[in-house]
Amino acid sequence: METLPDRLKSYAMGSLTVDLKEVDYLDDFGALVLSELRKMAAHGKTAFHISHASDKIKDLLGLVAFDSLDHEAPVGKKKRSPGAFVRLGEATLQHFSGLKYAISFIGSVTLSFFHVLLHPRSLRRGDTLLYMQRVGVDGLPIVALISFLMGLIMAFMSSVQLQQFGANIYVASLVSLAMTRELGPIITAIIVAGRSGSAFAAEIGTMKISEEVDALFTMGFNPVLFLVVPKLIAALIMVPILTLFSDLFAIVGGLIVGISMLDLTVNSYVAQTIKTLTLFDVFWGVFKSGVFAVLITWIGCLRGFQVRGGAASVGQATTSAVVSSIFLIILTDSVFSVILRYWG
Amino acid sequence: MSRQAIIRVRDLRVGYGDDIILDQVSFNVYEGEIFIILGGSGCGKSTLLKAIIGLIRPYSGQIVVDDEVVSTDDETKLQGVLRKVGVLYQGAALFGSMTIAENVALPIEEYTSLPREAVNTLVRMKLGLVNLQGYENHFPAELSGGMKKRAGLARAMALNPKILFFDEPSAGLDPITSSELDDLILHLNQSLGTTMVIVTHELESIFTVAERIIMLDKKAKGIIAEGDPRYLRDHSQNPFVKQFFNRRAIEDGRGGKPAK
Question: Which residue of A63, A67, A210 is the best one to mutate when testing the B interface, meaning the one whose CB has the most B CBs within 10 A?
Answer without folding.
Answer: A210
